[in-house]
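Materials and Methods. Structural model of Synapsin-3. The 540-residue sequence of Synapsin-3 from Salmo salar was retrieved and submitted for structure prediction as follows.
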Amino acid sequence: MNYLRRRLSDSSFVANLPNGYMMDLQSGPRPTPPSSTSNPASPATERRTPPSLPPQVPASGSALGSSPAPTPGGFLSSFSSVVKTAQLAQNAAAAAKASAAVAEAAAAAPAKPVIRKPKILLVIDDLHTDWAKCFRGKKLNGEYDIRVEQAEFSEINLASYMNTGCMIDMQAIRGGTKVVRSFKPDFVLIRQHAYSMTPGEDFRSLVIGLQYGGVASINSLLSIYNFCSKPWVFSHMIKLYHSLGPEKFPLNEQTFYPNHTQMVTTPTFPVVVKMGHAHAGIGKIKVENELDFQDITSVVALARTYATSEPYVLSKYDIRIQKIGNNYKAYMRTSISGNWKANTGSAMLEQIAMTDRYRLWVDSCAEMFGGLDICAVKAVHGKDGNDYIIEVMDSSMPLIGEHVEEDRQLITDLVINKMCSVLLGINTPQPSAVKPQTTQPRRAQGGHRSGSDSPSQSAQGSPQRARSANTSPSQAFQPGPMPPPAATGTGSQKQPPQLNKSQSLTNTFTETLKGNATDDEAKAETIRSLRQSFASLFSD
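The predicted structure was written out as tokens:
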């Protein structure tokens, strides 16, 4: 109010006011405009201009009482509203102009590439396979790089949290240098056994930690944990045996003993006793009679573990049917060193035809524990002509044969498809299963299979007839009787040069294949001679 009084005392300010807005400072109360509906008794209408202020005379000389004048507060409020409205309109126009300029600049500027954080793949495997090389250059949906961290179970530790997932601590030796890293895996490929009764090889707690952290894997962590007990897996194979029948799923008979106290006797001998949970032939004993069986019972008591027994099958060869995604392969392994364990000593391995019978075996086992992406079924083909399924393996199965690199690539593609499905929600259809062309193995020098074939040979296949699933090695070779000694040259003929073992064995193959398969005894003798030659060659 003091400000208003000072302004009204200024004659220049009063002279610039429009007509009718000057009030008579000497007339007492301020007039109220006719349109006003305010209460005349309100304090605003009772205010008086201090009499100390002198009266002001308008410069225009117009009459003061021609129309009532509004209050100075009303005038200033109207004036402020007009100014604020103008400012708001001006600010809105400026903002719209700036937004249009920004949008135009963004449209004209080139789009910056989006840098995505790579997905971390933990591969649990030994160092014999460089999985980083297999995944090099691969991307998830063409957008995310894959960072491979490879270590063995013994080289990692972890901590898992309910909300933040799993954190891996890795301590490994690489090239003589200790490597220490911590990372949070997005996916896990498990290519090692998670449990063995061998001291220091129980890693089930790490599997629990990965499951606790919600990490997806191949095979599933549920199946990995279930495969930590072979009798537990065999119990699920028994279900398949009862549902499919012994003709379609010929499971070898097995007896389970939770401890040594129940190991009294078995109905037949010889038997194979398997103690606890182990791999690669460890803990397996062939028992010929009841006395030996009682001796093994005392060993089981000392080990404080469970045991199983199953009839020993006098086999011609072992069979392995593997499944990686939608790819199937069948192999036959024949021992040539005379060991009753076909995976021990020297053996000959070859790929055989994939039959519907074999496919049923592996497909049925692949449905265990919610599904197995990678698995293999092991069986024995006995000399009685029957097949006996003895075991199923999970993603820790070793890769064998001449197509190891192809199998690694199949696993790589399978992992990428699974990572896209789990991490990105993109389901990439797997290639349809193609029945592989089965070739008869090449007979290289030394009689054993060659380590690898050229790409063209493996793709086109051999022109020779593929061996059927029920063909024994002796039928495949079709040897004839040994040639008479005179055929080698004696007397006045020149003696042949001294041959090494490989050349001698090659000549033996050539000579035996020329004969006619008429004498069974001669064929048997030839096979024994070939096996001895194989054993002698591999023993060097």
